[in-house]
Design brief:
The chain has 14 helices and 21 strands. By secondary structure, it is an alpha/beta fold. The protein has three domains: 86 residues, Rossmann fold (3-Layer(aba) Sandwich), CATH 3.40.50; 202 residues, Mur-like, catalytic domain (UDP-N-acetylmuramoyl-L-alanine:D-glutamate ligase); 143 residues, Mur ligase, C-terminal domain (Protein-Tyrosine Phosphatase, Chain A, Alpha-Beta Complex), CATH 3.90.190. Helix 1 packs across helix 4, helix 11 packs parallel to helix 12 and helix 13 crosses helix 14.
């Protein structure tokens, strides 16, 4: 890559799941890596165990003799380390630029989409690994198949990356193969409207070279809209009859999702995933397509997908002994609908959904849709907004989502603004055989785990 001129790379916000994967890949390539973050976490502990120097908090002194500084979307240019680097004329680059440099090393496979990116990237990475292609993988979630980390340095000629549309970062990438799972209104702090988002995804797809291809889900109306604007080879997939690659004869039982693959009118065989939901069946079709197009046989692809055990915080089981406790990263109405539908299709049990909205802006933009998305639960508990990078917006709390759910006909809604009270609330209302699912991109998972501790201590 650029080892001749760059020896040491410093990451600001290294604890972010997207940053840590790049840091790990570069460490494995022989660069000296350091990084800082406001908080210590499992991610920073893992990076420390690899020999990366981690600083808690941000200070100009952390920079030391770095040759380049990489910062995440969560870090602004007023950060003391970023300012120090600028004053010392040390190159300051965004995470997306460094990811693009990593992709330039190899044939890139970029997995984009409003939802499903992390799971799909992980599936593709596992299929190619099991198929002997030995890819480099950078994914936005911890994957058990990668030993609990989110990065893998392979010796093969392909790199599989999660291509995030937030802040238009995916437009820096140059994939040879591009996948688009979904396309909906999201990140309205970056995009003006859905048409603006469509334009960005078309630009991403058209970055594919003449020898590559684009695969996208034909079930998605917005993806149907952009097909005429993409001037590359396209392979469509989905459940719809007109898709090039289809899943048929779907069956669901608890965690298992079974289906048959029809590939360009040829029935290849049956796959049984160990994760629930039609959305995950569709995600797996991306891995089938990319595996087949790179020359893998169906049995290899099938065996890899049937081993896939999911991604950290994506429908992750926390407890199963009478009551079933699941944690899920869903933080958009469509994701919530998909996860709750996955529960409904696999189990016939009472479902208690606990939701922590993520970002005031997203809550303001989508509170009505959030309210509708929980109609598939028997009990809906909503807590207050996890602010992440944002300041409060007057009148925007979790209560507007709870009220929306009530107005759309939900008969059992509880608004509890204090998330610390949720474990005790769950213990009070839950019955044997209930399914509890905590949902959101913030820290709601911690309170699901505290509820599990309460259950265990009372047995």
């Amino acid at each position: 890559m650029f080892q001749q001129v760059i020896k040491k790379i410093h990451f600001v916000g290294i604890g972010g799941i997207g940053m840590s994967g790049i840091a790990e890949i570069l460490l494995n390539q022989g660069f000296e890596i350091s990084g800082s973050d406001l908080m210590e976490s499992e991610v920073t502990d893992h990076l420390k165990s690899l020999g990366i120097t981690i600083y808690k908090g941000h200070s100009p002194e952390n920079l030391k003799d770095a040759d380049v500084l990489v910062y995440s979307s969560a870090v602004n240019l007023a950060n003391p380390e970023v300012k120090e680097a600028s004053e010392r004329k040390i190159p300051v680059i965004k995470r997306s630029e460094m990811l693009a440099e990593c992709m330039r090393m190899k044939y890139g496979i970029g997995i984009a989409g409003t939802h499903g990116k992390t799971t799909t990237t992980s599936m593709v990475g596992l299929v190619l690994t099991e198929g002997g292609i030995d890819p480099t993988i950078i994914v936005g979630g911890k994957l058990s198949g990668l030993g609990g980390t989110n990065a893998r340095l392979g010796k093969g000629e392909y790199i599989v990356v999660e291509a995030d549309e937030f802040d238009r970062t995916f437009l820096r990438l140059t994939p040879s193969i591009a996948a688009i799972t979904t396309l909906e209104t999201e990140h309205l702090d970056t995009y003006k409207d859905l048409n603006d988002i469509k334009t960005a995804f078309v630009e991403f797809a058209n970055k594919v070279p003449f020898f590559g291809f684009v695969t996208l889900c034909l079930d998605e109306p917005a993806l149907q809209d952009i097909i005429p604007l993409i001037n590359k080879k396209i392979i469509t997939y989905g459940l719809t009859q007109q898709a090039d690659v289809r899943a048929v004869d779907l069956k669901h039982h608890e965690y298992e999702s079974t289906f048959k693959v029809v590939y360009k009118e040829e029935e290849l065989g049956q796959i049984t995933l160990q994760i629930p939901g039609a959305h995950n069946i569709k995600n797996s079709l991306v891995a089938v397509i990319i595996g087949k197009e790179l020359g893998l046989n169906f049995e290899t692809i099938k065996n890899a997908l049937e081993k896939f055990s999911g991604v950290y915080r994506r429908f992750e089981t926390k407890y199963s002994n009478g009551i079933l406790v699941i944690d899920d990263y869903a933080h958009h109405p469509t994701e919530i609908n998909a996860s709750l539908s996955g529960v409904r299709s696999g189990w016939k049990r009472r479902l208690v959904a606990v939701f922590q909205p993520h970002l005031f802006s997203r809550t303001k933009d989508f509170y009505a849709e959030f309210g509708r998305s929980f109609l598939n639960s028997d009990v809906f508990i909503c807590t207050d907004v996890y602010p992440a990078r944002e300041l409060p917006i007057e009148g925007v709390t979790g209560e507007i989502i709870a009220n929306a759910a009530k107005s759309y006909g939900h008969k059992n809604v509880i608004y509890e603004p204090d998330k610390t009270k949720i474990p005790a609330l769950l213990k009070e209302i839950c019955e044997t055989d209930d399914i509890i699912i905590t949902m959101g991109a913030g820290d709601i998972w911690k309170y699901g785990e505290k509820f599990v501790e309460l259950i265990k201590s009372s047995k």
